[in-house]
Amino acid sequence: MFKVRVTPHWEIRQHDGESLDTAVLLAxxxxxxxxxSIARAAQEVGLSYRYAWGLLRKAEALFGHSLMQTxxxxxxxxxxxxxxxxxxxxxxxxxxxxxxxxxxxxxxNELGKTVGNTAQTIRLDASHGFAVAAFxxxxxxxxxxxxxxxxxxxxxxxxxxxxxxxLAGFHVPLGEFEAQSAERFGRWLDPKSHRLIHLAVRTQxxxxxxxxxxxxxxxxxxxxxxxxxxxxxxxxxxxxxxELMLPSLGITPAQVNGYENxxxxxxxxxxxxxxxxxxxxxxxxxxxxxxxxxxxxxxxERYFFAVSNEALEQPQMQKVINVVNTTTFREMVxxxxxxxxxxxxxxxxxxxxxxPAVKK
Length: 360
Known about the structure:
Layout: E1 11-13, E2 19-21, H1 22-35, H2 38-45, H3 49-63, E3 68-71, E4 75-78, H4 80-114, E5 121-126, H5 130-141, E6 145-150, H6 153-161, E7 167-173, H7 178-185, E8 194-208, E9 229-232, H8 237-248, E10 262-263, H9 266-274, E11 280-284, H10 285-290, E12 294-308, H11 309-312, H12 315-324, H13 327-334, E13 339-340, E14 347-348, H14 350-354
């Protein structure tokens, strides 16, 4: 069994044809940011000092601006332009990672068929999330073949109902909005035919810049004219939750500046804010922490894998359950900011999970 990894790659080109491949440059800049030294950064990246200097000078000539700042006792620091390049790369990665991971999974399966790999594959359609990424890592290390497609929660459970997948990852808030949210997914999940594997509980809330300079306290602040919001895409479970929460406060989408600006993942929302393009977004705590943003918790929700009763009894699905119940996986989930693995691996009926919100 082998793994395919697909990563984003971008270059900058001037009108006169002069171009700059950013891959090596970005690696060098990130290392300079960490070490405060061009010489040490070049060594860590595997470049000669001379080549590193030449690469930096070429980039500065292309932009017409410096990438470095030096000061007595401070070492070498990045200029605002260099920092912007790093943030641009993080935004590209955050936005494209689900699509590229899905493509990599597709390529793995196609290549596996070509070379005669007959291992049975679990088809997983799931809303993008950090616990799902942890599961994929643990599943791969356990020898499970996973055919992954990242898609929003609604599309994931709809695909399961059409037998287009074996597992569907989706999330439902706890508390006030649980019944309404569960009822939506109940259109595709049959209490007599499906079960739920509890993956994790996670915290959703607002991402704001470090120090919270706009003094944002809750969703009611989104209607302030100076606050720029970035949203999740239509159909995502996080967007659905927001669309339940706003009306309860008497807020309409038209009142929110930037409501139609959307990103596909929690990380992409966080990167959008961290790069200065918005002031606030809505998503899971882990993304805020990874992009060094402040976080205002607003809701807790459960993330599930939905599975048919028939598939649940199959040997490959039992291996999935074994992976979810390993101590290693539970510890991976528990270490994610805002995640709780207390009930990870529990198998529930829809009635056990949601009670009267699900029709028998």
